[in-house]
Structures are given as structure tokens and as C-alpha cells.
Specification:
The protein is of the alpha/beta class and about 375 residues long. The chain has one domain: Aldolase class I (TIM Barrel). Helices cover about 40% and strands about 15% of the residues. The protein contains 15 helices and eleven strands. Helix 12 packs parallel to helix 14. The two termini are about 35 Å apart. Bound molecules: ligand V47. Ligand V47 binds next to strand 6 and strand 7.
Length: about 375
């Protein structure tokens, strides 16, 4: 492999990684433009194995999107409905949302992951009651809910500080924040694709506040639309800088853009090579973030499986219900069983491990 790494022009990067040195902006860009996917992947896999060996994590989770009514007009979004009167707009009653958990009494679920539209017509108590109800039904369930963009929206709408919103939600049962809403931090891109939601500084400041309050969070990057490779690296470096400060990020999750039924539908979806490259470069640049996750609904199941050799050590989880990607054309199933996740990891030559949200390993998943 060393001849190949040299031929790919990556010998100095290889040296730095071996010495445990950090890669800089220009090196990140060089990794992206390097045509030798396998050379980049090999380096990323070495970093992955240094941290996790062949272990691959996933959890027993449930995704819920209680409302898609949204005041933001992100060009890439196929899920949001601006008017509550739109035929496809919906807001679940609290009872209906809680029923989603009640109906799964037989499932050993460990986490509910909630993402919503920015709905201007709900009282703040809708969200606190929602969380309290889930904890009443199943006190041990981990609630990973509301992106930093939602937290910013709540603060502005209900006239609170970001910290107050987080504290009140934590009081109601919030355990961690998901990573959605990061898109691409660069102002040039945000102005074009999501001009009316919170900016990168506020997104990062909300994660900083959440970390300061003792919460762990994830962070995402929406790729494969109008962003440049320089903007991808800038995004990763902003994550790395905050992680140096707080250590509160658990996982970095690249999210592949899906073009169906949205205002960017003329753009092609990113292909498998780009997806593998993004996950690999993330593993190499984010030396201080423990996990790189392939969200199999975004990447496709087979590409997620392949990514386990390109820096990825986590596959999210069972999910079960998902609208954001399926409304944008994702052809995957909405959910996978633990047995299916375990099998796809094993057949990729990796070891499946059921984890909780904090990556405590519950048990090695037995072969089925
Ligand atoms: O914030 C919306 C993205 C995100 C599209 O934290 C789109 O563990 C592609 O953040 N094509 C929500 N992406 C999902 C999310 C997530 C997923 C899995 C795990 C975690 C975690 C978080 O989906 C949004 C936005 O960035 N998105 N529309 C689209 N057409």
C-alpha cells in the first residue's frame, strides 16, 4: 500500500497521521481532490481501526417527526410544508406521538430521535409535554431531540435565551441533541440554500451551550449540492475547533443530498465514490471526534456497508419511521431490524455491536 500512497501523492499526509499530527486545511483539500479513492480510504480505515478496531455500532432507535409545518424555506427540503393548510402538512397530537412509543411496548428501544419543522403555531408546552409524556411511558428511554436550528427558533419565538430553552427541555427529559441543521457552515452556501434559518455561529454556539450544560450532541454536514471541497473542509475544521473547546460531540454524520421533490431537483445526487470520500476525509480531519456515522437511509444500505472500510464505525440504528429522506427520494426501507443491521455489518467483514446513545456497548450482537 505504501507504493500506492506515494503514487497518490499522499506520503507526507501518511507520515503526519503516523506521527499523530493533525491535518490542516490544504491537506484536507488534497485528500478530496486525490483521484485514488482507495488510497484515501486506506488511510481513513487505519484511523478507524486505531480507534475502534473492526467494531461497528448501531442502536435500537425510533425516529419521529411530529410536525412538518415549517416557516423556513430551505431549497433542499422536501419534507417541510409552509402552510398548515397544505394537504401534506401535519402536526401530530401529543397522544398520537406517544402512541408511537406505546405501540412498541415489546421493542427494547433505547432512543427516540425527534426532528421537526419550525412550526410557528405551537406553544412551547407542546414540546415539553411531548418529552415528559415519553419519559412517563418509558422512563429509561433516551430522548435525542430537536436540532440546534429548532432550539434557535424556539428561543426567538418564545422569547427565551438559547440556554433557557435547553434547560427547560432538559428539565422535561431532553437527554441530547441530534446533529441536524448544520448543512454547510459557509455563509455563501447558507445564503443560497437556507437563508432564513440560524447561521453557523448560532448553530455552533447552541452546541457549545448544550455541551456546557452536560449534554452530548452530534453534528452533520449536508454534502453533494452546491458546496465546494474547500467549504466541506472549512465545515469540518469549524467542528474540530469547537470539539477542542468542549469535547461534547459524539459523532460526525455526513448527509448525502437527495434531490427529489425539492427546489434543487435539477442537481444530481452525490454518487457512491463521493460518499465514500466524504466519510473517509471526515475520519481523517476530525481527529478529536470519536465516531463517524454513515446514516444508511442517506447513503443507501450498500454504500453504508462499504463505508465501514472507509472510516465509518457507526450506522445509526433501526430508525423504523423516516420522512425527510423518503420524501426526497431515498429508496431504502424506512427501518431495519437489529438482525438485519447485524447481518449487514457481519457480511461486510466487521463486528456488530449494539450500543446506547452514549456508545456504551450493550452486547456483541450474536450471529443470527
Ligand atoms: O437537518 C433535509 C437533512 C437533516 C434533505 O444526529 C436532507 O444522529 C439530504 O440531521 N437531502 C435531518 N438531506 C437528519 C439528521 C440526522 C440524521 C441521522 C442521524 C442524526 C444524528 C441526524 O436532514 C436536516 C438536513 O440537513 N436533509 N432534506 C435532502 N433533501
Amino acid at each position: 500500500m505504501h507504493t500506492r500512497i506515494r503514487a497518490a501523492g499522499l506520503a507526507d499526509i501518511d507520515e503526519k497521521l503516523r506521527a499523530g499530527e493533525r491535518l490542516g486545511f490544504d491537506e484536507g483539500v488534497r485528500l478530496f481532490v486525490c483521484p485514488d479513492l482507495l488510497a484515501v480510504g486506506w488511510l481513513a480505515n487505519r484511523e478507524r481501526e486505531k480507534r475502534h478496531g473492526g467494531r461497528t455500532y448501531f442502536n435500537y432507535n425510533l425516529r419521529l417527526e411530529p410536525t412538518n409545518v415549517c416557516v423556513a424555506s430551505c431549497l433542499f427540503c422536501s419534507f417541510a410544508r409552509l402552510k398548515p393548510t397544505d394537504a401534506a402538512a401535519y402536526t401530530m397530537s401529543l397522544e398520537r406521538a406517544w402512541d408511537k412509543l406505546r405501540q412498541r411496548a415489546d421493542q427494547p428501544l433505547t432512543e427516540i430521535h425527534i426532528v421537526n419543522g419550525l412550526n410557528p403555531d405551537l406553544p412551547f408546552s407542546y414540546y415539553t409535554d411531548l418529552l415528559r409524556g415519553f419519559k412517563r411511558i418509558r422512563p429509561g428511554i433516551h430522548l435525542k431531540c430537536f436540532t440546534a436550528v429548532e432550539i434557535a427558533f424556539f428561543a426567538d419565538l418564545y422569547r427565551m435565551t438559547d440556554g433557557q430553552v435547553l434547560r427547560e427541555l432538559m428539565d422535561a427529559g431532553l437527554d441530547s441533541l441530534p446533529g441536524g441543521g448544520a448543512e454547510i457552515f459557509a455563509e455563501r452556501v447558507r445564503r443560497k440554500i437556507c437563508h432564513d434559518k440560524c447561521d453557523a455561529d448560532r448553530y455552533l454556539s447552541i452546541h457549545r451551550t448544550a455541551h456546557g450544560l452536560g449534554m452530548r450532541t452530534n453534528v452533520t454536514m449536508l454534502y453533494g449540492h452546491i458546496e465546494t471541497v474547500e467549504e466541506r473542509i472549512d465545515h469540518m475544521l469549524r467542528v474540530r475547533a469547537l470539539q477542542d473547546e468542549t469535547g461534547g460531540f459524539q459523532a460526525f454524520i455526513p448527509l448525502a443530498f437527495h434531490p427529489d421533490n425539492n427546489q434543487m431537483r435539477k442537481l444530481p445526487a452525490p454518487g457512491a465514490v463521493d460518499t465514500l470520500k466524504v466519510h473517509a476525509v471526515a475520519r481523517l480531519m476530525l481527529d478529536n471526534v470519536p465516531h463517524v456515522k454513515a446514516f444508511w437511509i442517506a447513503t443507501g444500505v450498500e454504500v453504508a456497508q462499504t463505508a465501514l472500510w472507509f472510516g465509518v464505525d457507526d450506522l445509526d440504528g433501526t430508525v423504523q419511521e423516516e420522512k425527510i429522506y423518503h420524501m426526497a427520494g431515498s429508496p431504502t426501507p424506512e427501518g431495519l431490524t437489529m438482525a438485519q443491521l447485524s447481518q449487514l455489518v457481519r457480511s461486510a467483514g466487521r463486528e456488530p455491536f449494539e450500543r446506547d446513545t452514549f456508545y456504551n456497548v450493550k452486547e456483541a450482537v450474536p450471529a443470527c
